[in-house]
Amino acid sequence: MRSDRNGKSGKNGKSGRAKFRAVVRTPVGACSAALLMLLIALALLAPLVWGDRASAVDVDALQQGPTAAHLLGTDSLGRDILARVLVATRLSLVLAVTATVIGVVTGTLLGTAPSVLPRWAGRLVTATVNIAVAFPGLLLALFFAMIIGVGAKGAVLAIGLAMAPAFARLTQTLSASVAGRDFVAAARVAGVGRVRLLTRHVLPNIGEPLVVNATISAGMALLSFAGLSFLGIGVQAPDYDWGRLLGEGLNQIYVNPTAALAPGVAVVIAGLAFNLFGETVAGVVGARASTPSLPKPKGARKHAPTAAAMGHADGSDGSDGEQRLVLAVENLRVTFPGATGPVTPVRGVSFTVGAGESVGVVGESGSGKSLTALGVSRLIEAPGVVSADRLEFLGKPLLQTSGPETRGLLGTSLALVFQDPLTSFNPTQRIGRQLAEVSEQHQGLSRGKALARAVERLREVRVPAAGRRARQYPHEFSGGMRQRAMIAMGLMGEPRLVIADEPTTALDVTVQRQVLRLLAQVRGDEGGAEDGSRQQGERAALLLISHDITVVAQSCRRILVMYAGRIVEDLPTAELLTAARHPYTRALLSAVPALDTDRDAPLSVIPGRPPEPGQVGAGCAFAARCSFADERCGAEDPATVDIGAGGAAHRVACWHPQGTGSSAGNSSDVAVKASGGGA
Question: Do 651 and 538 fall within a single domain?
């Protein structure tokens, strides 16, 4: 095992060196490396080699032009201009780099502050940055230099502070692009705090453009310093940098043009070196450093899921009483601000999920399925607003519970499986580290034990060579393996509810079946009374979201049909084919082809398109596409009524619910029955 790890580490190191050599071989990389090494060498050696010559006064050679003794001539005191330009390299670079560090650090802090500060404070910081960005950088530098004071220290602070707003804006933009990714949402559900979320998940993913822009900004800082020193605000005598030498050289430009040309060329070359180096860094920074190897787990759980198909559960053990509810939702609404007023894509959703119950949510794209799941998981960010008459998870009111308590509850008892497993993982971290973070945060495990638990969970979801796979990055996994790893992340805690949002999208039918079977196994294996907080035999509940009604029908006991932000029908899967009452549900079933579908007949489709969230009228949202709609349907939104018979809950929101004949569709009947019926 050790030799494997050492070999892996060595391989990674060689890969990084090979990538660096490949970049340096390019014209841009070679030029940037050569120029940067030249500048560093001059900064280190020039004061030692030419320091005395640069400060030696020669009254017999005042303001001379180029000669054999003085290749670029002398200044007003007879000092060698070439030596002074070379010696000034150290101070010019040190001041520029120092100002860049100040600007980058300050800008990064300002750019990330809205993510960790209270909302009002974050808005104040953002407004201040926006105002500062409106001013040119050199103008800001002059402003700060006048306030702080003349001299090198004042110029360093002035240029650094002048650079900060632009860098803060860049950081805000990049952070916002990453904050909406699924792996950040998963980290929030896992209970990761704001600061840790920022340092572990956001900053590593925006580090490359920040580093590139920092190196380019160093060239701009060098130019700004030269400008301030040229104006007499920056470096003061007896010290000198390229800007000060440029100002002195202009006084004798008609006598000796090289006195001004030499420091100007030095500024251009140094700026070019930093800019080209930024392009080089963009290629090199992608090589990730190797992380500590994973310890070998001491043992596996007593029983891991087998590859055999699991039988479908009856679902009765989790829905026989209020005290057994895992999730209770009443009148859930998700609202966002719009150009013409508030937009409510989820409007009045109500449902419950009992312990061990499998519930499916189905509907066309844009019906509000995923937003409902995000609202339940407390993942709707401002300016979105989540409201509900009741939103309880394991008896805890989520809308009234404090943030830390909610994170702890959701992080250990709620598992999320997102639609796109590639965007659900942090691309800069290894799979094992991302899984281990849950146990480190909520179970207090050490780094080594958490990594061992991650390997164990990957093995349980049938990821081959789990120890090796845990050391790989998400892009090294196939789509099916990434989805299995996502499920394993949910199992790092002890989930009472698994929310799977389109878990089989973009997967072939074989992998799709494996993922659905794995979810069924999760329901069967999780929920034991390991920690004493559960009742014996209580299984994890499943909320499966999909646009494919046949997938939901084969995996769930109960189905919620959503349209335009509300549930239009809630019925048992056993009644889907024979007792679906809402025209939209029946239309979804009819649109599913089967093996016996007439190939010569046109496929059944639902005419029209779902309404946009901000365009839902006062009546039934499906009225424009429904052949049974009348004036009442266009004027009044139907209430949800219970039409269940024999004790089975069956609710529908329709003014004209259809009969209970077999007209739900023969093709759908074949499609669903072939998949095995309800779960």
Answer: no
Q: What is the pLDDT of residue 68?
A: 85
State which residues of the chain have pLDDT below 70. Answer: 1-25, 180, 186, 189-191, 279-323, 506, 524-538, 645-648, 660-679
> Which residues are within 8 A (CB) of 118 and not within 5 positions of it... i.e. 6 or more apart?
none
Q: Are 252 and 325 in a shared domain?
A: no
255 and 336 in a single domain? The answer is no
Whether residues 109 and 182 share a domain: the answer is yes
pLDDT score, position 513: 81
* Helix and strand counts by DSSP (H, E) for the chain: 24, 13
Q: Which domain holds residue 665?
A: 568-679
Tell me which residue of 625, 552, 590, 609 sits closest to 369, measured CA to CA. Answer: 552
For residue 174, CA distances in Å to 112, 209, 462 come to 10, 9, 36
Name the CA radius of gyration of the chain, rounded.
33
User: Please, what is the angle between helix 119-133 and helix 152-179, to 10°?
Assistant: 120
Same domain as 125, residue 227: yes
Paired residues of 642 in beta bridges: 651
Tens-digit pLDDT profile for residues 384-401: 899 999 999 988 898 887
Closest CA to 44 of 91, 9, 7, 2: 91
- Count of domains in the chain? 3
Q: Say yes or no: 389 and 527 in one domain.
A: yes
pLDDT at 151: 86
Is the pTM of the predicted complex or chain greater than 0.70?
no
Regarding whether 504 and 366 lie in a shared domain, the answer is yes
| Residue at 26 is within a domain | yes
pLDDT confidence of residue 526? 52
Residue 71: which of 195, 250, 211, 256 has the closest Cα? 256
Q: What are phi and psi of 271, to 5 degrees?
A: -60, -40
DSSP assignment of 122-147: HHHHHHHHHHHHTS-HHHHHHHHHHH
